[in-house]
Amino acid sequence: LITKADKMPIGIYVKGNIPFTNHEIELQDGDVLYTFSDGYVDQFGGPNKRKFMSKRFREMLLEIHKKPMEEQHDILNKTLLDWHGELERVDDVVVMGYRHKINKD
Q1: Distance (Å, whole) CA 44 – CA 48
Q2: Which of 91, 92, 57 is nearest to 76 (CA)?
Q3: pTM
Q4: CA 68 to chain centre
Q5: CA proximity to 33, closest of 61, 6, 4, 74
Q6: Would the pLDDT of 16 be above 70?
Q7: Is a pLDDT exceeding 70 seen at residue 91?
Q8: For residue 3, with 0-12 CB atoms within 10 Å meaning exposed, 13-18 middle and 19 or more buried, which class applies?
Q9: Which residues pair with 97 in a beta bridge?
Q10: Between the CA of residue 92 and those of 26, 41, 66, 69, 74, what are the distances in Å?
Q11: Nearest CA among 10, 26, 30 for reference residue 18
Q12: Residue 15's pLDDT is what?
């Protein structure tokens, strides 16, 4: 499931009366949620010095989502560093992952 973000900067909410969209998602045990900025997918690199792109990023998340979160962090970090190599980082990069666990006490 991909939930698209609203196409407006956060600061516009304070200045205008256009509300952000609220999304409610029912989670199952073991579901993994990711939220991220555009910094990872917009990073230039690779053999042709092109952007990483959303499709490649989504495919990587699908490949690693069952791994422990710490291992996912290491994979995401190494992949980004390998991707941009000697090229300068073009934007801030934020990737947050959450694995839902149902407390069975």
Answers
A1: 9
A2: 57
A3: 0.82
A4: 16
A5: 61
A6: no
A7: yes
A8: exposed
A9: 34
A10: 30, 11, 26, 21, 17
A11: 10
A12: 56
Q: CA–CA distance from 102 to each of 1, 24, 27 (Å)? A: 20, 17, 9
pLDDT tens figures, 34-90: 999 899 999 999 999 999 999 999 999 999 999 999 999 999 999 999 999 999 988
* Reduced 3-state DSSP string for the chain: CCCCCCCCCCCHHHHCCCCCCCCCCCCCCCCEEEEECCCCCCCEECCCCEECCHHHHHHHHHHHCCCCHHHHHHHHHHHHHHHHCCCCCCCCCCEEEEECCCCCC
Amino acid (1-letter code) at residue 27: L
Strand partners, 93: none
For residue 82, the model assigns a pLDDT of: 95
Contacts of 3 (CB under 8 A, 6+ apart): 23, 25
